[in-house]
Amino acid sequence: MKYKPSNIVIGYGSAILSAALFGSISTVAKPVLTSIDPIVLSSLVCLIAGLVFTPIAHQTKLKRLSRKYYFLILVTAVCGAAIAPVLFFLGLRQTTAADTSLLANGETVFSILFATLIFRERLRPIGYIAVCVILFGVFIVTTNLEFDNSMFALDSGNLLIIGATMLWGFDNNICLIITKQIEVSRLVQIRSLVGGSILFLTVLVFRLPFNIQWTQIPSVVILGVFGFALSLFLYWHSIKRIGVVKASSIVSLSAAFGLVLAAIFLKETISLYQVIAVVIMLLGIRLMYSREKKVEIRY
Question: What predicted TM-score, i.e. pTM, was given to this entire model?
Fold first, then answer.
């Protein structure tokens, strides 16, 4: 079954916008984490995301699902909506927003790895070349071609972020299977509410403090609505239309968006190598979009 051109455009457009929203997370969350516990922040962000999509989800019909899909939904809620955000925010608390934006591209690598090794997603040769070009850009952004960079020291903060991206990479592929049976908005709602509820119970059981100031509420809401809910919604719409490999490669642009936002709002620096890397990543996306064979990926 061939894709309609409009679906391809929507797929690529959704992935780029998702990259912009995802790239904003580290910049928005970094100041908030100075006083809010990462588990508390994760629970609030997930619950807000689920509540925002509840009215949208109720406009869609929920199909009768087999036990397999209920199990997969539980897996994505625990791994992608509960454990991964906590690891991400714990890591962000220990490192810079810029480094976090760069390390977050591990999600791209792990998404592609799981898609090709486990789920057997395939591209034309030109598609693999485009992916390599994009990942080369990611490599430059991450290292500045300085191989003694502190990021390679893999301190605890970096390891936590890498762990989060590994879980999200696996989660992205699981969610693609689930969205074959239920609407994306419904999955965002259920996944976020289940994961957020698990975290909220954890907060209550361990009596973690709610040190939230009034001035931080807008940032928490922005993280929940745009950084997680809308970003996921757009990303999963993208993988339904163009596949995990292509969508994940495009979402790697979140590093560029994250760097720019960190520089503007947190006064962190951007190097010439990082600018060159962004150009390379854009060229790779252009190559993938213009030369790909537009066929539907089947699972």
Answer: 0.83
